[in-house]
Prior knowledge:
Blueprint: H1 3-8, E1 16-20, H2 25-36, E2 40-45, H3 48-62, E3 66-70, H4 76-90, E4 95-98, H5 114-141, E5 145-150, H6 163-182, E6 187-194, H7 207-216, H8 229-236, E7 247-250
Amino acid sequence: xxxxxxxxxxxxxxxxxxxxxxxxxxxxxxxxxxxxxxxxxxxxxxxxxxxxxxxxxxxxxxxxxxxxxxxxxxxxxxxxxxxxxxxxxxxxxxxxxxxxxxxxxxxxxxxxxxxxxxxxxxxxxxxxxxxxxxxxxxxxxxxxxxxxxxxxxxxxxxxxxxxxxxxxxxxxxxxxxxxxxxxxxxxxxxxxxxxxxxxxxxxxxxxxxxxxxxxxxxxxxxxxxxxxxxxxxxxxxxxxxxxxxxxxxxxxxxxx
Length: 256
C-alpha cells in the first residue's frame, strides 16, 4: 500500500483556512489538524486574546502561519471585516469553516426574549450565511474552494431545552444544500453534524448527563474533540472533491 499517495489526498499545503469558533473545543482541534496538514489559518472567535493564544500555540507546534481575528459572527459588519482581513493578509481563502455557535439556557419558552432568539439565530445561521456569501462568491470567481458548515444532532433530534438553537441548526442543514447549488461548480459546500462531544462546554453537563450517553448513543459514549478531525480533513481537502451538499453525521449513531 502506498501510504504517501493516500495521505496526499488530504494534503492542505499552502491552503488558507478560516475557522470561526477556532480558539477552543472542536474548532481548535480542527485548526490543529489543518495546520498539521500544511494549511495556513485564520483563527476567529469573539475574544481576540483567545485567538492569539491559539494562533501562537499552533504556530509553535507546527510552524504554520496563523492570523488571529476577533469576530462576532452574529454581526454582519464583523463578518465582512473577517473576510477582508483574511484576503488582505493571505490574498486568498481556500476553505471556510462555519463552526462558531451558541445555545444559551432559558427557564421556559416564554422566557426567551426576542433579543435572545435573534442572537441565537444570528450566530448559528445568519452569520454563516453572510460569511459563505461574501467568501463563497470570491471563491467562485477565483480558484474555487470548500465551505464546511457545522450543524448539530439537535437539528434532527431536538430537545425541549434548545428550541431556538435546534431551529437554527436545521436551517444550517438547509443552507448547506442551497449554497451547494448556488455556488457550484467551483465551490463545494458540505456540513458536519456532530453529536455530543466532551469539549470545555461539556463541563457544565454534569456526571449524570454524561453517564446517560452510554444508554442513548449506540457507540456508548460522547465523542472526544479529536474525533471530529477526520471529517474536517476530508471535507477541506481534495479527498472530497466530488462531494457537495452532503451532511456528514459524526455522532456515535445517536440521530437517525
